[in-house]
């Protein structure tokens, strides 16, 4: 059935905030966040943020796109790492480090929302197909 065939997808619409939030979530938490496209499939599809611990795409027929694939590489490289060993400092210093990191991530998120790529490759039946990315908003 064509509605279940993701090869008909020509473009995906994404919220830049969803893409950025998914990337940050995956970097900072034990689960994974992706941009999920669910059947029935059409030429233009909306990808929404989806968080999981076990990938169920093979059961649901959904297509998952990594947030790292829709944000420009040079911006990904600028993602702020948590500075220092929190265990080696007192509570007050650890709190200062966490606050600086949160502020740096927030600034990065603003830049990243403006750095959405024009196209992305989707994995369809073991093959990668390029589709357009249309930022919302």
From TrEMBL:
Domain DUF8009 residues, every copy: 3-137
Pfam families listed in its UniProt record: DUF8009
Give the classification, highest ranks. Archaea, Methanobacteriati, Methanobacteriota, Stenosarchaea group, Halobacteria
Q: What is this protein called?
A: DUF8009 domain-containing protein
Q: Which organism is it from?
A: Natronobacterium lacisalsi AJ5
